[in-house]
TrEMBL record:
PUA domain sequence ranges: 297-380
Catalysed transformations (reactions): L-glutamate + ATP = L-glutamyl 5-phosphate + ADP
Primary role: Catalyzes the transfer of a phosphate group to glutamate to form L-glutamate 5-phosphate.
Protein name: Glutamate 5-kinase
Subcellular location: Cytoplasm
Species, as recorded: Chondromyces apiculatus DSM 436
GO molecular function: ATP binding; glutamate 5-kinase activity; RNA binding
InterPro entries: AceGlu_kinase-like_sf, Asp/Glu/Uridylate_kinase, Glu/AcGlu_kinase, Glu_5kinase, Glu_5kinase/COase_Synthase, Glutamate_5-kinase_CS, PUA, PUA-like_sf
Binding site for ATP: 32, 195-196, 231-237
C-alpha cells in the first residue's frame, strides 16, 4: 500500500510500491539461470548470492538483516557444457546427440555447483525432473515432499530438466517453463529469471521496469530467442512469468552479469523487469491442471455453457457441449473452447472422447451422469 502522502498516487505506482515491498519480505526464492549466463566465475558469484540470501544478509536494504530465506535453483547449462566436453562444433540438431551432450554435461554442471557452493559452506542436491514427473499427480506430490525435505535439511536443490532421457523436454520444454512449474510446487514468493538481457524491453528498446498484467502489458513485447546456446527466449520468460504470477509469486527478469543482481532484486530496487503476482493466486492443484498438464483434446461448448463456466463456476454438462476434438480418456486434461474456438478453460475429463461425443448435446433421463468436467477439476483461464 502507499505511504503517507501517496494517497493520490496512480494505481500503477501504488501497485509497484507494494510489489517491491513484497520482494523484501520474500521467504522462498527460486533463481533460474540460463546457459549463456553460466560462464567464467558465474558459479562463484551465484554461490555468494545464495549464501547471502540463506544467511539473511539481504533484508530491507541492500545490507539489511532479516530471517534467512529458502533458495531453490533451476539451472540450464548441461547441454552447452556437454557440447564442449564431447568436442562438438555447435549445438547438435538431432535428438541422440542432444541427449549425449546432456548426459556428458550434467556431471560437469553439478561438479561446478558442488565446488563453488562448497567453498562457502553450502550443500547442493541434484534434482532431475521430466515433464512426465510433473504431469503425474502422485509423482508431483513426491517431488514436493522431496524438495521440502532438502530445504529442511539445509541443502540447496539444483533442479534441471532430465534432458538425457526426456526427448520431449529437449524439443518442446525449457527451464523457464520448468521454473514456473516449480513455483507452486514449493510455494515460492519470488522467481528470479537471470539472463543475458537486462529485462523486458519496450518497442523503443527501453527496459520496462514493472508489469502489472502480463496479458495486457507484456506479451506483445516478447520476441523470440536467436541464441545458439539456450532454448528459451524472452517470449518463454514472459510466459513463465505469467504462469508463476498466477501461482502467487512475484517474478523478476534481470541480467545475470550484474554481480549483485539478486541482492538488488531482494532489496526492491528498480532492476530488471518486475512482474507482480496476481491478487488471488490459483491453488497448486488447479495451477497443475492449467499449466503443467498438456491437453489431450478439447470440448467445444455453447454460449450458455461459456457463461455458466466463466461467470458462475459451473461444471460442464453434456447438454452444453457442441463437439469433441482429439482422443482422450477419463482423467486426461482437455481444453475448453468457446463457439469461436478460443480457449477459455482447462479441466480433467470424466469421460473418454468417444463417450463424450456420444452424449454431447443430450439431456436424457437414461444418462446417469452428464457432467463431462466437474467444476472442482476446471480452471477458467485469465482473460486476455
Amino acid at each position: 500500500m502507499a505511504e503517507a502522502g501517496d494517497a493520490h498516487a496512480p494505481a500503477q505506482d501504488t501497485d509497484e510500491h507494494a510489489a517491491r515491498a513484497a520482494l523484501r519480505r520474500a521467504k522462498r526464492v527460486i533463481i533460474k539461470i540460463g546457459s549463456k549466463s553460466l560462464s567464467g566465475d558465474a558459479w562463484d558469484r551465484l554461490a555468494h548470492e545464495v549464501l547471502a540470501l540463506r544467511s539473511g544478509a539481504h533484508g530491507g536494504g541492500r545490507r539489511g538483516s532479516s530471517a534467512g530465506r529458502s533458495v531453490i535453483l533451476v539451472t540450464s547449462g548441461a547441454i552447452a557444457l556437454g557440447v564442449t566436453k564431447l568436442g562438438f562444433k555447435s549445438r547438435p540438431k538431432d535428438m541422440a546427440r542432444l541427449q549425449a551432450a546432456a548426459a556428458a554435461g550434467q556431471s560437469v554442471l553439478m561438479q561446478r555447483y558442488e565446488e563453488a557452493f562448497g567453498k562457502v559452506g553450502l550443500v547442493v542436491a541434484q534434482v532431475l525432473l521430466t515433464h512426465a514427473d510433473l504431469a503425474d499427480r502422485t509423482r508431483t506430490n513426491n517431488a514436493r515432499e522431496a524438495l521440502a525435505a532438502l530445504l529442511d535439511a539445509g541443502a540447496v536443490p539444483i533442479i534441471n530438466e532430465n534432458d538425457a532421457v526426456a526427448t520431449e523436454e529437449i524439443r518442446f520444454g525449457d527451464n523457464d517453463q520448468l521454473s514456473a512449474m516449480v513455483a507452486p510446487l514449493v510455494d515460492a514468493d519470488l522467481l528470479v529469471l537471470l539472463s543475458d538481457v537486462e529485462g523486458l524491453l519496450d518497442v523503443s528498446g527501453h527496459r520496462v521496469p514493472f508489469v502489472r498484467s502480463v496479458a495486457r502489458e507484456a506479451r506483445h513485447l516478447a520476441g523470440q530467442s536467436t541464441s545458439g546456446v539456450g532454448t528459451g527466449g524472452m517470449a518463454s520468460k514472459v510466459e513463465a512469468a505469467r504462469r508463476a504470477t498466477l501461482a502467487g509469486a512475484h517474478v523478476v527478469i534481470a541480467a545475470a552479469r550484474d554481480p549483485e543482481v539478486v541482492a538488488r532484486v531482494i532489496a526492491g530496487e528498480d532492476v530488471g523487469t518486475l512482474f507482480a503476482a496476481v491478487p488471488q493466486r490459483i491453488g497448486a492443484r488447479k495451477h497443475w491442471i492449467a499449466y503443467t498438464l498438456r491437453p489431450r483434446g478439447a470440448l467445444l461448448v455453447d454460449r450458455g455453457a461459456v457463461e455458466a463456466i466463466t461467470a458462475s463456476n459451473r461444471s460442464i454438462l453434456a447438454v452444453g457441449v457442441l463437439g469433441v476434438r482429439g482422443t482422450f480418456v477419463p482423467g486426461d486434461a482437455v481444453a475448453i473452447l468457446d463457439p469461436d474456438g478460443a480457449e477459455i478453460a482447462r479441466g480433467l475429463a470424466r469421460f473418454s472422447a468417444s463417450d463424450a461425443a456420444r452424449i454431447a448435446r443430450k439431456k436424457r433421463p437414461d444418462i446417469d451422469d452428464d457432467i463431462l468436467v466437474h467444476r472442482d477439476d476446471l480452471v477458467v483461464l485469465p482473460s486476455e
